[in-house]
Design goal:
By secondary structure, this protein is of the alpha+beta class. Helix content is 24%, strand content 23%. The protein has 6 helices and 10 strands. Strands 5, 6, 7, 8, 9 and 10 form a 6-stranded antiparallel β-sheet that branches. A 4-stranded antiparallel β-sheet has the order 2-3-1-4. A hairpin with a 2-residue loop joins β9 and β10. α4 packs across α5. The relative contact order is 0.12.
């Protein structure tokens, strides 16, 4: 669990731009014509292609986040927002905060974590408060690495009146949201099976896993003739 040595800005062409024939070369040409990296204190960027085909602009340095934010803001100003999505991804770890009292809100949890980790609340994403096996609430937070490091050695944190439990969850393996098989992403999926409209928990369409009351049923194992009650 280490803070990355680079920060990234990602440019993703939207479907409407692809249909119009807009290319990444067009985007980069317009960006280079309107943005001077030196004005933002950026000596240069390293270019990579994401697995989705999007373009990644990597800025060196663990402390380059503010410069990446500034570059992303300028790109949003000069590039047509109906053709390209400009994003500032961060590597995050999932953290479960459990043992919350009945009236605790997501905002209270995020504020408490932001306070102890000194990371802006806007950089912390949270699920809804859900009842756990003990009937007390829990949330799953997606925290930047810097925040997760500060939480790693803490077992409990006061949230409102409750002394809540903190647990860093193990990283999940890469999984395709289309066929649900691990090891690849949807844009490279070659499976003839599309399970994207089925519930992740039971496999039936019409509802999300978060509200599913059915018994667990693994669609992948079922299709392979294996025990699927999980």
């Amino acid at each position: 669990m280490r803070v990355p040595n680079t920060t990234a800005v990602i440019l993703t062409l939207l479907p409407v731009a692809v249909e119009k024939g807009t290319s990444y070369a067009d985007l980069m040409q317009k960006a280079k014509a309107n943005i001077k990296l030196g004005d933002l204190g950026i000596p240069g960027v390293k270019l990579k292609t994401a697995r989705t085909g999007a373009r990644m602009l990597l800025l060196p340095g663990k402390d380059s986040g503010e410069k990446a934010d500034a570059l992303a803001a300028r790109l949003k100003e000069v590039l047509p927002q109906d053709e390209v999505k400009v994003s500032r991804p961060e590597r995050c770890f999932n953290v479960r905060i459990s043992g919350l009292d009945d009236c605790t809100t997501v905002e209270e949890v995020v504020a408490a974590v932001a306070r102890v980790t000194e990371v802006a609340a806007g950089r912390i994403n949270s699920s809804a408060v859900r009842p756990g096996p003990d009937r007390f609430g829990y949330v799953i937070l997606a925290c930047p690495v810097a925040a997760a490091i500060k939480l790693k050695d803490r077992k409990r944190k006061m949230v409102g009146w409750a002394s809540a439990d903190i647990k860093i969850l193990p990283s999940r393996s890469e999984r395709c949201w289309r066929c649900l098989v691990a090891g690849h992403v949807a844009c490279t999926c070659s499976s003839p099976v599309d399970r994207s409209k089925g519930c992740y928990r039971c496999g039936q369409p019409g509802h999300p896993a978060a509200t599913c009351q059915n018994e667990p049923h693994c669609s992948i194992c079922s299709a392979a003739g294996r025990a699927a009650g999980h």
